[in-house]
């Protein structure tokens, strides 16, 4: 049976709203479905922010003239005036009503650089978890890329960077009913100390963190809209109900049956013969009961969750992330999964029986190589499929600017399995080929595209959960975590250093000349002359690795 999905995905099926604040505890108004037996529901949290400066003394150190330091914000993060704390934004997560634990992930990152590139630490994919009633503890986790003393980059994905002490922390109330957990004490963990390049020891006090979240709004109920339609049949059923009381009314109303024909005297003989037929009208109440079950089936079902997994193009990742010494970084909600990237569904319309699908996904992937002036981004991914064919469209940013809705790839669904298994429809490993419009996105200004139309791209996998409680399949790959990197499975290749905006640089592209600001070569840790870089670039291009554009004419790296 076809399962149609037309509504945008909502984060919550049952959510809580901040109702009252008293005696130092926050009361949540749970939906009626949360009562009774069974496992405690998980409620969605939205519009979250995390205000956290990492460590104030470290920020002050970077601001000293001798350090030649700079702090770069990425992915929507902001910083308070006067070298103040950072705010990580667009937090989403969940609150477990049974354990009272929370888990919230945020967008945004921060990069610290100093001493002519010798110090380089980048923090992204920040998340905050609390244990709830089991323990007054929590943690801040993050992906951290650190430049080691030998100049190599070490990527640590999803490490527990800071330990939180929730003792004595009480929620306050913020704007719009937000819950505010202010000034949560934080200390550096062992893994955090390692990621901090040994500047501080485990147990060192970090800046206190302030968490702000809101409960997701209740979804607009669809059943009440169908419910009022059922009284309409009862409104049409007064005729049967008028006849059905007739047996009961015949007891007290034997004499009333005499006037009754006079009441129906406009058609006295007609009512007589139709009297036997009126018992057939009680079949009309049967039609309301028969239509009532059909209305829910006509109401589109909801996609509970979904994900698109895609590595874009392995050769492109390898070149930018490894050979060029650049970075390949998931952003705006996308996450690294092995050698590919996971984009979360934003909305979908699925008819598995008709083999049709339209879906949109959040997140993007940034390909940057300051040494060769590359700042290339892809996001806004959408899928459209019908039968055995489909297309992947995306927003592509190059030196020429951002082009939205590019028909980037053609998809082959000849072998796609549209059957739901364990509540999930998975269109696995769909072959993808580059279109002419997609190839144009790989061309430097005034040059031919390096990849030609028809070039095989990485396969695309789409998984959509169509039943509550269904679990999306694990995504494969050679590297785990949700961090970044550019390799084909090493998990650390390229790291995430240099998100393309360091030093105030703008979104550029091939030869844009603004990626990385004044420290274009610092991201690679290299001070090699331009000639050597250009020679290496030409060698790579000759090997057919990927796009190489003339290196910026600089003689060295500046801090």
UniProtKB/TrEMBL annotation:
Ranges for region Disordered: 215-301
Origin: domain of life: Bacteria
Keywords per UniProt: Membrane, Signal, Transmembrane, Transmembrane helix
Biased composition, class Low complexity, residue ranges: 223-301
Secretion signal, residue range per the UniProt entry: 1-34
Domain Htaa: 47-212, 306-463
InterPro entries: Htaa
Ranges annotated as spanning the membrane: 531-551
Name used for this protein in its record: Htaa domain-containing protein
Source organism: Streptomyces termitum
